[in-house]
Amino acid sequence: MKIVLAALLTYSLLVPSIAYAKYCVAGKIEAVECSGFIIESCKFIRVDAVLDDNGNLYNAKECYSQVSDYKPELNRCWITTKSKGGGLLSWFTNVVTQPKFVHKNISGEYENIDANYITFPCRVE
């Protein structure tokens, strides 16, 4: 009996768990857009849609397998969307890989958001 228990314990420690957390949006997604060089000024902007490479609008994902930061006491998630500190390499990486978030202005037109990160109320499933 002890051998079986030891084998089960060893197996549970060595084999990775197949359960993965999902961080699901539980409210409005906001992007943080910052500008300025030495003195940076940032503002929160509601994300209304995501723009694909063909110019089509679609809703942001409802659940994410990874987030940059999660605060359980706030039920809040953050996802960093912009690379920083690498000079031209960071700039190029951002141009190629950064999602194109947009929000609808008062006139009903969509405007691009240059998001440093997005944040949203979230629940873990």
Structure report:
- Keywords: Signal.
- The protein has one domain.
- The protein has 2 helices and 11 strands.
- Strands 1, 2, 3, 6, 7, 8 and 11 form a 7-stranded antiparallel β-sheet that branches. The protein has a 4-stranded antiparallel β-sheet with strand order 5-4-9-10, with no helix packed on it.
- The longest helix is centred in the first third of the chain and has 13 residues.
- The N terminus is likely disordered.
Essential attributes:
125 residues, alpha+beta, seven-stranded antiparallel beta sheet, four-stranded antiparallel beta sheet, 18% helix, globular
Write the layout of secondary structure elements.
Elements: H1 2-14, E1 23-25, E2 30-35, E3 41-46, E4 49-51, E5 57-58, E6 63-64, E7 69-71, E8 76-80, H2 88-97, E9 100-104, E10 110-113, E11 115-124
Question: Can you describe this structure in just a few lines?
Answer:
With 125 residues, the protein is an alpha+beta fold.
What number is the mean pLDDT? 78
**Series of H and E elements:** HEEEEEEEEHEEE
Please identify the structural class as seen in this structure.
alpha+beta
Molecular shape: globular
Domains (count): 1
The rounded Rg comes to: 20 Å
- Tally of strands: 11
Helicity, as a percent range: 10-25%
- The rounded distance between the terminal residues' Cα atoms is 35 Å
Oligomer: single chain
Task: Give start-end ranges of low-pLDDT stretches.
Answer: 1-18, 90-96
Q: How would you sum up the major sheet? A: 7 strands, antiparallel
User: Count the helices. How many?
Assistant: 2
* Beta-strand content bin: 35-45%
